[in-house]
Amino acid sequence: MAKGMSKSAFIAFLAEKSGHSKKEVSTLWDLIVNTAYAEAKKGEITLPGLGKLMKKHRAARKGRNPATGAEIQIPAKTVVKFRVAKAAKDSIL
């Protein structure tokens, strides 16, 4: 299985393809990521062509300790979910 692209390799690739400096591309990437986090914290953000980043509430539930088999209570929590866009699925599969 191929190893994924690191952030520095991704920034270098975008800089080369766009003709901008690595610093400019890195600044823009950080702005995009921070904006996505801020909007997801409010509820959700759609990244056209990639998918949707959203905040979801997960209710409390009962579970089992796999080592002992004892029943445990899993508390409610908020999680971040990413739903992949159809265009992304179609282009990869």
Largest sheet: 3 strands, antiparallel
Number of helices: 3
The CATH fourth-level homologous superfamily of the largest domain: IHF-like DNA-binding proteins
The residue-averaged pLDDT reads 93
User: What is the molecular shape?
Assistant: elongated
Structure class: alpha+beta
How many individual domains?
A: 2
CATH topology of the largest domain: HU Protein, Chain A
How much of the residues is beta strand, in percent? 25-35%
Order of helices and strands: HHEEEEEH
CATH top level label of the largest domain: Few Secondary Structures
* Unreliably modeled segments: none
Q: What integer value in Å does the Rg equal? A: 19 Å
The total count of strands amounts to: 5
First-residue to last-residue Cα separation: 16 Å
- The helicity comes to 40-55%
Give the spatial strand order of the biggest sheet.
Answer: 1-2-5
Q: Quickly give the CATH architecture of the largest domain.
A: Irregular
Give an overview of the whole structure:
The protein has helices spanning about 5-20, 20-40, 85-90; strands at about 45, 50-60, 60-65, 70-75, 75-85. The chain starts with 6 loop residues before the first helix and ends with a helix. Strands 1-2-5 form a 3-stranded antiparallel β-sheet. Strands 3-4 form a two-stranded antiparallel ribbon. Strand 3 (about 60-65) and strand 4 (about 70-75) form a beta hairpin. By secondary structure, the chain is an alpha+beta fold. The mean pLDDT is about 95. The protein folds into 2 domains: about 5-40, no CATH class; about 45-93, IHF-like DNA-binding proteins (HU Protein, Chain A).
